Amino acid sequence: KAGVTQTPRYLIKTRGQQVTLSCSPISGHRSVSWYQQTPGQGLQFLFEYFSETQRNKGNFPGRFSGRQFSNSRSEMNVSTLELGDSALYLCASSPVRGGPYEQYFGPGTRLTVT
Amino acid sequence: KQEVTQIPAALSVPEGENLVLNCSFTDSAIYNLQWFRQDPGKGLTSLLLIQSSQREQTSGRLNASLDKSSGRSTLYIAASQPGDSATYLCAVLTGANNLFFGTGTRLTVIP
After folding, report:
1. What does the pLDDT read at residue B4?
2. Dihedral through CA A33, CA A96, CA B47, CA B26, nearest 10?
3. Angle B22-B28-B33 from CA coordinates, rounded to 5°
4. Which of A97, A103, A107 sits opposite B99 (nearest CB)?
5. Which DSSP category does A87 fall into?
6. Which chain B residues have a beta carbon less than 8 Å from that of A45?
7. Half-sphere exposure of B35 (CA within 13 A, CB side)
8. Distance (Å, rounded) from C-alpha B65 to C-alpha A13?
9. Do A107 and B43 touch (CB under 8 A)?
10. Is residue B8 classed as helix, strand or coil in its secondary structure?
11. Chain A closest-CA separation from residue B35 CA (Å)
12. According to the model, what pLDDT value does residue B42 have?
């Protein structure tokens, strides 16, 4: 069974631009979560989608948004990029919400904002 | 708010040594606890998952324990190898279905 895939793997953007990152969960997994990893803040939860609905959101500004499609694939969008948005963005999938299931992570998208 | 702490932040050991990594969390209302490994610039690899009702899990040279009431978990690595060098992260899953991560322990195993 294929793992979690994320595209693109690397991105370089300029301040003020917007960016869209994509995540394809493991087949059959319906919950997709997004995390931001920076050297200063570590790994922080962005949001979670389940059945095409955002179920939970972390403490990030409204410039960070996402969506989930009927096939469980998810995208996250960051508008008006700032230098501080440079980070590794990771998505994770699990079969359902909560409970005894592992979260499986993709390889991440490395975003650099210049 | 859940806070997860890992001690030590960095650890350097000679090859073959057994070692213990520590993780503590402030809110015992968790679904499970996962230990991950992260190599530089890479994503997270899940090592062990302990359900909130379990006390420990083992996989090969790895053994993780959980004491939910005291908010503590340990990851024991036996007979360490240079390939074990990585950052180890623990994370707790809450009812809101998001993982709270510790800051990690950077492990270096010296040949």
Report:
1. 96
2. 70
3. 50
4. A103
5. E
6. 98-100
7. 28
8. 43
9. yes
10. coil
11. 10
12. 87
